[in-house]
Every structure is written in C-alpha cells, then in structure tokens.
Amino acid sequence: MIRYCCDRCKRDIEPGCDLRYTVTIEIEAALDGAETELVDDPDHLDELHDLLDSADDLCSSVFSEEVYQRKQFDLCKDCFRQYMKNPLAKEVAAPRGFSKN
Hints:
Helices cover 36% and strands 20% of the residues. The protein has helices at residues 34-40, 42-53, 60-67, 77-85; strands at 4-5, 12-13, 21-28, 68-75. The strands form 2 sheets. It has a two-stranded antiparallel ribbon. Strands 3-4 form a two-stranded antiparallel ribbon. It has one domain (4-85). The N and C termini lie far apart (62 Å). It has 4 helices and 4 strands. It is α+β, with helices and mostly antiparallel strands and 101 residues long. Helix 1 (34-40) packs across helix 2.
C-alpha cells in the first residue's frame, strides 16, 4: 500500500479518505538575450552544438541544478490552504493597532 505524508507538517495522508495536493515547482535559469544572439549569428549555434556534445564531460548534477530544477511536494488540505495564501513564503507584516481617537 502506498503511504503519503504531508511534506510540510509531516501528517499522514490517507489515500481515499484525505484530500492530497501535489505541488510541482519548476525552476529554470532565465537566459535573457541568449536566444537573440544565437539566432543572429549562426557561428554561435555551432559553438552551442559543440558545447552540448561535450556536456557529458561536465559534472551533470552541478550543471543541471544551475539551469533547471523540478521539485514535487505532497500537501494535506490545511497546508495547501496555507501555501496558497503565501506561495513564496514572504513575511507578512503584522497589522498595526491604532487607537480609536
């Protein structure tokens, strides 16, 4: 039997009984301007092709983590609601109490 637990609060999630949410986050390096340079100068395309051919020599784990990452998390209903309120986990300023003057 497959067992799930919330990756945020570690509570067990019972399949068929509890609602389970899967959150997938994809992180890609933004290579702004790189595409236009490659299209304008075909010599760069050849260099890129040679680089890709020799990519096996590079440490693939370091290279891939800097360019692309995909993370997947299981969340229970309560943690999913909290996640949707603040998905980037920004600090929320506490409301200021003003006197009733």
